[in-house]
Structures are given as structure tokens and as C-alpha cells.
Amino acid sequence: NQDALPNFDSADKNDSYESLFSGQKYTGIDRINKANDFTLGLESDFIDEETGNTYASLKAAQTLYGDEISANGSNRKYSDIAASADFAWDRFTFNNALQYDPETQKIDKRDSAITYQLNPRKFLTIAHHDDNGTKSAELYGAYPINTQVHVFSGINRSITDSITNKETTGIAYESCCWAVRLAHFKKHISGNDYDYVTDFELVLKGLTTTSPGLSKRLEEDIPNYLANLDD
Asked: What's the domain range around 206?
């Protein structure tokens, strides 16, 4: 009985269409996922017959639980409904996702984003998030100064609390055989306290990198950015 065990950092992970199909119900390590859940999803893609590109995608899904109890102690037998609607027009993409609670008949979470992208090193995204009334906005992108140098940046700011949650800036240089990148991270801890990290990376293409975790962190902080310099 997992209810008898203490819970320090686990939470329900059911806030998106993709996470409902991931098989991972919980974040953290204090709760174990079981395999007796059933997820029903509907997806419809609209594809241009001439180009083969998807210009619209509609998705919705909900999970029915077997005998598990949620991380917050609830014994509800179903998840929230996760739905998304994505549209593409020329160089623009419009992404919208929401999490609907059938019990309260309210939308618990809503995410919206607009992206203008020429390539993964030249784009700009504006996003807005509403998580149970806690609102935040994001602005991130990348821009090539020339064929070898590009800069990247991202900021997430809380509209509710009027504080900067996190900030990322950096510059990278690439040649045929090697590349270097300098990235600076600022993350809000609490009150007026921030955590600052500066990371330098040297990449010998096809061989190694001095900072293996930097690419993953940049892709999390700056979605749509092609962070892998080993190409």
C-alpha cells in the first residue's frame, strides 16, 4: 500500500497529452507506477497533400486508473482531460494546450505559444502559462550573427508575483571540426535570492564535449533551439 509510505517529492504527472501516454504517472521517486491504467486518446492531423506538412493537429486524452491512489491522497479513478490544438501557417506555429478537471468542470492549466521560426538557430517564441491562477510569460529565441556565430536567450517571468523565474543567455561559435559555447543561467530560489550558473562548453565534433549536460538544459529552457553542436 503506497499510501502508507511517506511522500517527499512525488506529484501526479498528468498535465499533457504526451505525459498521459508516457506510462509515468508520478514525478519523483516516492511513488511507483503500476501497469493497470487505461488511457483513451483522440488525435486528428490535417496534412497538406502537396507538401506533406501538417498544418493542424487536434488531440485529447484521459486516463482511467485501476486501483492506484494519487500522490496527493485522492482516490479519484480518472485523470484530468488533456487537450491540445496546434496550427502552422508559413513560418508561424500556434500551440495551445489545456488541462480540464471533469470533477470541478474547470480548466486547471492552460498554455499558449506563438513561434516564428526560419530554422532552429533563428526563431522567436512568445508563450503564456496559467496554472490554477498562477500566470507567467516566456520570451525566448536564437539569432545567427553570421554563419559561425549565433546567440540565444530566454526569460520566464511570473505575472502573478512580478518576479523573474529564470533567465538564460549565451553565445556559440561553430566551425567544421569544433565549437565553443558560453551560457549563463539565472534561476529564482525564494524571496530576493537567485542561483547563478555560468557554463562553458568545448565540443570536438564527433568526439566529445566538456559539458554533456548543457545541451539538455538549454533545450529545456529554450524550446525549439537546436542545442546540439556536434552536427
From this structure: 120-231
> Tens digit of pLDDT per residue, the chain (231 long)?
455 555 444 456 566 888 887 766 655 554 555 557 888 999 999 999 988 999 999 999 998 887 655 555 567 888 899 999 999 999 999 999 999 999 999 999 999 999 999 999 999 999 999 999 999 999 999 999 999 999 999 999 999 999 999 999 999 999 999 999 999 999 999 999 999 999 999 999 888 899 988 999 999 999 999 988 876
**Residues 190, 231: one domain?**
yes
- What 3-state DSSP class applies to 173? strand
In this structure, are 79 and 152 located in the same domain? no
Q: With 0-12 CB in 10 A as exposed, 13-18 as middle and 19+ as buried, what is 23?
A: exposed
Q: Are 93 and 86 in contact (CB under 8 A)?
A: yes
Domain boundary among 82, 109, 136: 109
